[in-house]
Amino acid sequence: MLNDGAKRTLSALREVGIHIGILTRNKRSNALAIARKHNLRFDTVVDREDGPVKPDAFGVLRICEQFGVKPEETLLVGDYLFDLLCAKAAGAIAVLLANNKQAGEFAEHADFTIENINQILQIIEEKK
Predict the structure, then answer these.
(1) Residue ranges making up the domain that contains 58
(2) Sheet-wide strand order for 112-114
(3) CATH of the domain at 21
(4) pTM of the predicted model as reported, rounded to 2 decimal places
């Protein structure tokens, strides 16, 4: 199921020139199938076959390298502990999408906690 507001948020990010990547512990083909199903486009996908998986920093650093950005300029949005630990290991900004019952257990590892994906737009605006 697609998070409420995801399509609008991704469109808004793209409109202002922000690259969008997927970092998954799953296979690239699964991530691309979900993207096709929901008519979403991502600039890159890093999966478990590319290198060490989350919580290792590898995926974030690979995406940052591909986009030509520094980790500290990068938001990693995730809903699980490994997402946050991965962001921290890479020096990126960890954003917890608190959309499940376990989210409270992970909040201490997040730089920001959001309830809806569109709130990342506010974080980006504040960081400018």
Answers:
(1) 6-127
(2) 75-78, 93-97, 112-114
(3) 3.40.50.1000
(4) 0.94
